[in-house]
Amino acid sequence: MNTPASTAPASKRPLDASELKQLAATTEPAAAAEACACGLHRAAAWESITEERWPQALMQKVGTLRDEDIAEPTFEEWHPGGTRYDSPDAPISVRHFPFNRCDVFRCNACGRLVLRYTEFGGYYIDHRVRLLDPALVTSQT
Q1: Per DSSP, what are the bridge partners of residue 116?
Q2: What is the tally of structural domains in the chain?
Q3: How far apart, in whole angstroms, are the C-alpha atoms of residue 55 and residue 116?
Q4: In the prediction, which pLDDT does 7 show?
Q5: Least confident of 6-10, 31-35, 116-120
Q6: Distances from the Cα of 122 to the Cαs of 59, 125, 126, in angstroms?
Q7: Residue 51: its pLDDT value, please?
Q8: What is the predicted pLDDT for the residue at 59?
Q9: Quick check: 125 and 118 in contact, CB under 8 A?
Q10: Could you tell me which residues come within 8 angstroms of residue 53 by beta carbon, excluding any fewer than 6 positions away?
Q11: Domain range for 9
């Protein structure tokens, strides 16, 4: 990938595990990322973030893991090491829940990449984010 990911348009085709890992590996957060106004450095595991807290002005969508051809993606999770949904070290398996419902965003200020999806409950809508750690991306299908 010779084109910097920050200038690449967001594709409608979902990223596969190797593309997601490559995107994450080629992105270096700025040295001052901890102090960035986006505040996303704290989201090592899934964190609820309201629309009011979502730093819309700083975020750029750079890809998706959602396959538009699948009307109802699986809710099956993948935790071979005994992790849980909310574990910071849970593997990122792009074809399993909740990753199969995520969009990938980059903070234009600090360069951080985050995964974002919306949890729809019976009486609520909850937007959730998690930092993209390339070491956790797995090609499990």
Answers
A1: 103, 129
A2: 1
A3: 12
A4: 43
A5: 6-10
A6: 28, 8, 11
A7: 92
A8: 97
A9: yes
A10: 39
A11: 5-138
